[in-house]
Specification:
Blueprint (H helix, E strand, L loop, with lengths): L2 E6 L5 H14 L4 E6 L8 H6 L9 E4 L2 E6 L1 H12 L3 H8 L2 H9 L3 H15 L11 E5 L3 H17 L4 H14 L4 E7 L3 H16 L3 E10 L6 H13 L6 H18 L5 E5 L26
Parallel strand pairs: 1-5, 1-6, 2-4, 2-5, 6-7, 7-8
Antiparallel strand pairs: 3-4
Helix pairs in contact: 3-4, 3-6, 6-7, 6-8, 7-8, 7-9, 10-11
Length: about 300
């Protein structure tokens, strides 16, 4: 795929998964650009922290061999769009220097998302040496559940509003890219709990409804289950009469994780489970990072 859109409810590990996917693809020999959709005024880049980048900006910066990172903002997309449709680049710069035009583009329905989409397309079209694409794959960390749906909805919404012209041409190009399952796919990250799973299933339905392929679900922080099915039933039944016993909370999490897994498997998208890793708050080095190229799991008491 040329673009992988990583989405999910806040706090589920979406950014960590984005960084891990980007590193994994680059380790296979591909040129990868990890992107984070940035909001106006953001001073800290979570994806930059996950990748160990302190100077993340609106232009790609190197992270490692075969891996760069960039912040995607709607204003950059608007500037690129105006630069493509206006006869002179200076006219685009003049337009973007107008506070009224900037305010319109950042607040008018669907236009902020259109700017983000156009910036994504611009980065996908970048050419490197020998006229090959500068990046084989873009892995994009979307900021929240609703943003993925907004990004999926904008092409159709704008085509209903606008009769024709360069904006429509750009939207149609974005629509072709978003709807091609060989080029674009979404990965939804969630936790093994009822509410995050419910939101993820709604998100998956919305993504598919608007023509974007759901290429996978990541069930993150799955608790360790040392029991057989019969043992788990027996232990869970015992805790119903003795809920204060040590281990009751973890057993409840195992039961809920099994229920979450069953709901997600029923959706049909490929499911990947990531285990909850042992972590000592007083010893950060005890956490085997998923982002490291190689690591050896540590024991935990």
């Amino acid at each position: 795929m040329r673009a992988i859109l990583v989405t999910g409810k806040g706090g589920v590990g979406k950014t960590t998964v984005t960084a891990a996917i980007a590193r994994a693809i680059s380790a296979s020999g591909k040129r990868v650009l990890a992107g984070e959709v940035a909001a106006v005024g953001d001073s800290v880049s979570p994806l930059g922290l996950a990748l160990g980048v302190s100077n993340a900006g609106l232009s790609p910066v190197p992270v490692a061999e075969g891996l760069d990172m960039v912040l995607l903002d709607s204003a950059s997309g608007h500037r690129a769009f105006l630069g493509d449709v206006l006869p002179l680049r200076m006219l685009a710069d003049a337009a973007m220097s107008s506070e009224a035009i900037r305010r319109f583009l950042s607040t008018a329905p669907a236009f902020p998302e259109m700017g983000t989409l156009y910036r994504m397309l611009e980065l996908m079209r970048l050419r490197g040496k020998g006229q090959a694409y500068a990046y084989d794959t873009l892995v994009i960390d979307l900021p929240a559940t609703g943003h993925a749906l907004a990004l999926a909805q904008i092409p159709g919404a704008l085509l209903e509003i606008l009769p024709g012209g360069p904006i429509v041409d750009a939207v149609k190009e974005g629509l072709v890219t978003l709807h091609d399952p060989e080029k674009t796919g979404a990965i939804v990250v969630t936790l093994p709990e009822a509410l995050p799973v419910s939101e993820s299933l709604e998100l998956l339905d919305g993504i598919v409804k608007h023509g974007i392929a759901a290429r996978g679900i990541v069930l993150n922080r799955v608790p360790t289950n040392p029991f057989t099915a019969a043992e788990l039933d027996a232990v869970a039944a015992h805790f119903e009469s003795a809920p204060s016993l040590l281990g009751s909370r973890h057993t409840g999490r195992i039961v809920r994780a099994n229920e979450a897994r069953a709901r997600l498997v029923g959706h049909g998208a490929p499911l990947l489970e990531l285990p909850e890793l042992p972590f000592d708050d007083h010893d950060p080095a005890s956490h085997p990072s998923l982002l490291a190229p190689h690591f050896s799991p540590r024991s935990s008491t």
